[in-house]
Amino acid sequence: MHIDKDLVAASATPLVLGILADGESYGYAILKRVNELSGGQMHWTDGMLYPLLHRLERLGLVESSWGTSDIGRKRKHYAITSAGRAALVERQEQWTVVADALAQVWRSTQQPDRIIEEWA
Amino acid sequence: MTVDELQPDPHEGLEAQIAQWRRYVQRREAISAADVDEMEDHLRERIDELSAAGLDDEESFLVAVKRMGSLDAVSQEFAREHSDRLWKQLVLVSSSPAGSTRTSRELAVMLVVAMAAGLATKAGLQLLSATSFALNAALIVLPFVAGYLGWKRRLSGPAIAVTAAIFVVPAIAINVYPFDAGGSTMIIAALHTPVVAWGAVGLVYVGGRWRSQDRRMDFVRFSGELAIYFTLLALGGGVLLGLLATVFGLAEVPSGVIESVMADWLLPLAVPGALVVAGWLVEAKQNVVENIAPVLTKVFTPLTLMMLVACLVALIRAGSLVEADRTLLIVMDAILLLVLCLLLYSISARDPLAPPQFFDGLLVAVLVAALAVDAVAMTAMASRIAEFGASPNKVVALGLNVLLLAQLAWSAVLGGGFCAGRRPFAQLCGWQTRFLPAYLIWAGFVVLVVPPVFGFA
């Protein structure tokens, strides 16, 4: 299934913040986690993650530090800040509203697409 | 892993590919070295994972690069986040603590070299006659540019010796040869000495690794960027001098004073100095102009094509009536040189991995049009060139024409093959850099051999 680019972009920030809320991580691991969480459905262009992380860092939502990987490679780690946690809570509330509204719409309209998908 | 490192590296090819990818990404202004480190870590982890899944090095690398996304899009995204970087890097002294001593020392060295270049020029003007200075000017100034680059490259002994020889041999020749005053062999020698000297600068620029095609292409970029920076500096300097002269004029400083200050001191010191500063700027700020060069070539390629078609029509309509003197020959050389510059800069600025695009076709059209113009002009002149025998001007202009024709004709074949999808872009690119030394050899030949052959007339 192809997920709309705008939808991916809109969900990127809460996803990254949410993943980092679980503990410090780094780019590649974040991407892998997104992949796991979405069952491989959400495809991010790998390179696009970094400008996003840098923006979150500039906004003070995450902080970064250089460390080394287990085989001694230079690696940049990201951790969520308290401002980041606050932003995450706020985003969560926003998404809950959106998800609730959508859920109600889904219930009230029986979409032909959905029936097909359920049969498939 | 640590034990493996002592063995010959089985992943040498992969390492080379990653290094190449790094260099390629690093050229993007918006992506800093630390970002590249971060992305390289990512790339390597992706490659490791793909290798573990059974792909070989090459396949893993390709997939990992593909997953990284289009570099244009990614660097645009970086630029949006870090637009400041594009400007910050223009700041003269790096603000990062690491390497800042080197940067400020480089600034000092550059300033000393620039001043020395100016003083040497002033001394040359003072000691040499006007014609002798004109002959020697390039050999006075360019060693300083070479010296600065050589200091920066930490040039090895043999490379220094070869470079010095390239400067010294023509210097001895042009000063020992008994040129007829104002004769054409002297003018020809004066025109070709800078080419030889620039070849020596190139040798220093590539750090003695003159066999490396990539380094040669870097030197082509360097030359173009230097020309642009030098022009900008000259424009700025011109504005300052103009304002100064105006104020002096209003303050009723005698005009003789203004002129002597400018001609005797400011220009001899400033022009060579500006050349060194331009070289330093290109080095300090590699590739800011890489964003301008493609734009310039994109603007001028269609315009040049139109100009060439107009020339072609004019020449064909004139037929054998064309004034077949050496002016036409020299104009043809100038046209081919212009086309060569367009070609070199389009190639040097082009993403070597991109598939053929409309613009590549346009470039091939320019090449074909230039060759057609040259062919028509040469045919019109052929009989008369033979008729009047060989003069130094004719021989030199014709020789250059043959050289340019050879390079452009084969480029047209390679470029056409690339557009048709039959040849890789690398062939077109490699041909340009392989051909470059031919111009150095030709210029050397013209400076050293042509004058005695024609009796220094």
Q: Keywords for this structure?
A:
heterodimer, A: 120 residues, alpha+beta, Arc Repressor Mutant, subunit A, 3-stranded antiparallel sheet, 5 helices, globular, B: 457 residues, mainly alpha, 17 helices, disordered N terminus
CATH topology of chain A: Arc Repressor Mutant, subunit A
**Uncertain spans of chain B, ≥5 residues at pLDDT below 50?**
1-6, 87-99
Radius of gyration of chain A, Cα only, in angstroms?
17 Å
Pattern of helices and strands of chain B? HHHHHHHHHHHHHHHHH
Considering residues with a beta carbon less than 8 A from a beta carbon on another chain, report the largest interface and each chain's count: A-B, 20 and 23 residues
Q: How is the largest sheet of chain A built, in terms of strand order?
A: 1-3-2
| Radius of gyration of chain B, in angstroms, nearest whole number | 25 Å
C-alpha geometry of chain B: globular
Q: So what's the CATH class of chain A?
A: Mainly Alpha
What would CATH call the architecture of chain A? Answer: Orthogonal Bundle
The biggest beta sheet of chain B, please? none
Q: On the 0-100 scale, what is the average pLDDT of chain A?
A: 85
Net shape of chain A: globular
- Total of helices of chain B: 17
Coarse structural class of chain B: mainly alpha
